[in-house]
Amino acid sequence: MSVPMTLLGLLEREPSHGYDLKRDYDTFFSRGKPLPFGQVYATLSRLVRDGKIVVGEVEPGVGPERKRYVITERGATDVESWLTEPVEAEPNLQTVLFTKVVLALMLGRPAEEYLDVQRATHLRRMKELTEIKRSGNLVDAMLADHGLFHLEADLHWIDTTAARLDALAKEVRG
């Protein structure tokens, strides 16, 4: 999971306070493992330092001032690059791919096209693993089977998600 890229994507959707970013992150991406406030603000500080976001409005709050963060052109370019680059085809892919799909839908981007690119990446890797299975020893074949089964499950998830994109878009856009 890429916390900085996810926060940038949420900021591209709309300028936000750190508290709101944490809430949205926890709602859509944490799945039972909330993002610590310290990590949110440390990440935001690095993004400011790197010129990917700026501090916009500062409002008085109960306690410290509330800063509204705004994505810069550089940050938006990074989000676009990250969203369009396929995830390495490997087990446990769904977390990053799911995040990309949800952010793409939130941002009005072509999530179906991203899923198509990911599907092609998986199919290429499956072809490689099939060749390893065919030409390798039993250990290689067993490892290739392990990878192939995970990739098959991922492809099933990609197809199921593609079929549900309209419903998911409605849910994540509120």
TrEMBL record:
InterPro entries: Tscrpt_reg_PadR_N, WH-like_DNA-bd_sf, WH_DNA-bd_sf. Residues 7-79 form the Transcription regulator PadR N-terminal domain. Pfam families: PadR. This is PadR family transcriptional regulator. The lineage of its organism: Bacteria, Bacillati, Actinomycetota, Actinomycetes, Micromonosporales. It comes from the Bacteria.
